[in-house]
UniProtKB/TrEMBL annotation:
<feature type="transmembrane region" description="Helical">
    <location>
        <begin position="341"/>
        <end position="361"/>
    </location>
</feature>
<feature type="transmembrane region" description="Helical">
    <location>
        <begin position="86"/>
        <end position="105"/>
    </location>
</feature>
<protein>
    <submittedName>
        <fullName>Sodium:proton antiporter</fullName>
    </submittedName>
</protein>
<feature type="transmembrane region" description="Helical">
    <location>
        <begin position="31"/>
        <end position="51"/>
    </location>
</feature>
<keyword id="KW-0406">Ion transport</keyword>
<keyword id="KW-0915">Sodium</keyword>
<feature type="transmembrane region" description="Helical">
    <location>
        <begin position="274"/>
        <end position="299"/>
    </location>
</feature>
<feature type="transmembrane region" description="Helical">
    <location>
        <begin position="373"/>
        <end position="397"/>
    </location>
</feature>
<feature type="transmembrane region" description="Helical">
    <location>
        <begin position="214"/>
        <end position="232"/>
    </location>
</feature>
<dbReference type="GO" id="GO:0051453">
    <property type="term" value="P:regulation of intracellular pH"/>
</dbReference>
<feature type="transmembrane region" description="Helical">
    <location>
        <begin position="238"/>
        <end position="254"/>
    </location>
</feature>
<feature type="transmembrane region" description="Helical">
    <location>
        <begin position="184"/>
        <end position="202"/>
    </location>
</feature>
<keyword id="KW-0813">Transport</keyword>
<dbReference type="InterPro" id="IPR006153">
    <property type="entry name" value="Cation/H_exchanger_TM"/>
</dbReference>
<feature type="transmembrane region" description="Helical">
    <location>
        <begin position="6"/>
        <end position="24"/>
    </location>
</feature>
<feature type="transmembrane region" description="Helical">
    <location>
        <begin position="57"/>
        <end position="74"/>
    </location>
</feature>
<keyword id="KW-1133">Transmembrane helix</keyword>
Length: 527
């Protein structure tokens, strides 16, 4: 029950935060969710309802599906053609950064190198979701954005292996280079193979099922939603990288989706909408959780915070050294321009996986004092990696052009579209009540029906005034279909004028088609 209450509180907070975000268009949803999490942590009543952070549950229930959906949104061809660059960013860059950052802290503060390597390893993974929130409203060079996305998909595993190596070194007093390299290869390559094979077998099963008479959309959807959890669980059970496994399974699913979307259109549309919905909720879940955890970290480590500022300086040095290394790599290895190299360096934003890795470390291994220090340092790294680029990108990256004027024109087109649909219905020889019902439905397309109109219609339905007979239902369907045809024809005429990007008109077309499917599909017919 506790986990249900805890999840329920966070989900309610997400719903409220996302509504509030509509009133603050200049602030990313991520920061609103983060602030909501901080608020939950500050209020004693809500804070006690939310369970303590559990890194294993977090990685399994939140990160695994998020990375699977990220993988599904990435083309296999892109990964294959950029394999050399991806390996360089997610392995070479990560290892070099960890070693140099660890060495810098070792020199500056005299901490043992195995412990500083642990610090550096935890700050290795980057977060694509956090990056998207930071650059929201800004135009980023396509190549840099793609590199940052590829890096964030695959460098988590490197960080986890480096962390394990650092902890082993700290416990045993020696580092076996050959053993750690072999562990990395087994984990990374094993995760890649397992995720690819598992994803391929699931794809074959789903595609065989969809082409038979026993295909059931609900069963297919359950299989689709369970895939990332199963892949991650079994990969971790056989001691390969669950992170890489779910990404690779997602890549397989991307190719499947592109070539089977019309084999069962209902199923594909449902799966797409569920994926978008779950991704949005999980992304928000990450930052609400991060906000709550940050409050608890400060509260639980208040004495350490006030006794010494070493944690602050170490966090700043880790972030600055990482920036310099990332800039040098982008400039001299990837051969980016100076501007693109700066963007790449600042784009290495840390978030959910870094937080999970911190809490995966046992205080018994590093010691209670070092454990508290580690939590505070990584908290600073996460905060700096989000705040610094948020500020600097406002000066470095051009803003996305304001489309408010275009959206106003689109609203005018929508209004005219609905007017034409209503006009054609008024010309039809149909029952008066049918006409009223159809016109009300058409006016809903541009939300011209107020609460009074809705309540009037609601009472009418309850009083059985819209209980149409078979002929009236047929007339209602025919009137709506005719109106939709007129609306589409009008949109086609507007598109020929080339006033603005047709994507805006495609969105209106899509709304009409969805409305049409509600009218035509027998499942959607009310009794």
């Amino acid at each position: 029950m506790s986990i249900l209450i805890s999840s329920g509180v966070i989900v309610i907070a997400i719903a409220i935060a996302n509504i509030l975000a509509k009133f603050t268009p200049g602030i990313s949803n991520t920061y609103i969710n983060l602030a909501m999490g901080i608020l939950l942590g500050l209020i004693p009543f809500t804070d006690q309802l939310v369970l303590d952070f559990n890194n294993e549950i977090f990685m399994f229930a939140i990160i695994a599906p998020l990375l699977f959906f990220e993988g599904q949104g990435t083309r296999n061809f892109t990964v294959r053609t950029q394999a050399k660059t991806i390996i360089g960013m997610s392995v070479v860059l990560a290892v070099v950064t960890a070693i140099l950052v660890g060495w810098s802290i070792n020199l500056a503060f005299g901490l043992v190198f195995p412990f500083t390597l642990v610090m550096a390893a935890i700050s290795t993974p980057t977060d694509a979701t956090a990056f998207d929130s930071v650059v929201e409203g800004r135009k980023i060079p396509e190549g840099v954005g793609n590199n940052l996305k590829m890096e964030s998909l695959f460098n988590d595993a490197t960080g986890i292996i480096l962390l394990a190596a650092g902890l082993t070194w700290l416990q045993t007093g020696h580092l076996s280079f050959g053993l750690n390299v072999s562990n990395f290869l087994i984990s990374a390559v094993g995760g890649m193979v397992f995720g690819g094979v598992f994803g391929y077998l699931v794809m074959l099963f789903r595609q065989m099922l969809v082409r038979t008479k026993v295909n059931v959309i609900s069963s297919q959807t359950i299989i689709f939603l369970l895939t990332p959890f199963l892949v991650y669980y079994f990969a971790e059970e056989i001691h390969v990288s669950g992170i890489i496994a779910v990404v690779c399974a997602g890549l397989i699913s991307n190719s499947e989706a592109s070539r089977s979307r019309f084999s069962s259109s209902h199923q594909f549309h449902l799966g797409t909408q569920l994926m978008l919905f779950i991704s949005e909720v999980l992304n928000s879940f990450v930052f609400v959780t991060l906000g709550i955890t940050l409050v608890r970290i400060v509260r639980d480590n208040f004495h350490e915070i006030t006794d010494s500022l070493d944690w602050l300086w170490i966090g700043i040095i880790i972030y600055l050294v990482s920036l310099i290394i990332r800039f040098a790599y982008a400039k001299f290895i990837i051969h980016n321009t100076i501007n693109d190299a700066v963007i790449f360096a600042l784009g290495g934003i840390h978030g959910a996986v870094t937080l999970a890795m911190v809490f995966s470390v046992s205080s018994q291994v590093v010691g209670k004092t070092n454990y508290d220090l580690l939590i505070l340092i990584e908290t600073i790294v996460i905060i700096l990696s989000m705040i610094v680029p948020t500020i600097l990108f406002k000066f470095i990256l051009p803003g996305i052009p304001d489309d408010s004027d275009i959206l106003k024109q689109v609203d005018e087109i929508r209004d005219e579209m609905v007017k034409r649909g209503i006009a054609c219905v008024n010309e039809m020889d149909i029952d008066k009540n049918v006409r009223k019902s159809v016109i009300y439905d058409l006016r809903d397309q541009n939300t011209k029906n107020g609460m009074r109109d809705f309540l009037h219609q609601w009472r009418a339905v309850n009083q059985n005034r819209f209980n149409f007979d078979e002929k009236q239902r047929l007339d209602e369907r025919r009137a709506l279909m005719y109106a939709f045809d007129v609306e589409r024809e009008y949109l086609h005429d507007v598109s020929l004028e080339h006033r603005f990007d047709n994507n805006y008109l495609y969105a209106l077309h899509s709304e009409i088609l969805l409305s049409e499917s509600l009218v035509l599909d027998p499942i959607n017919q009310q009794e």
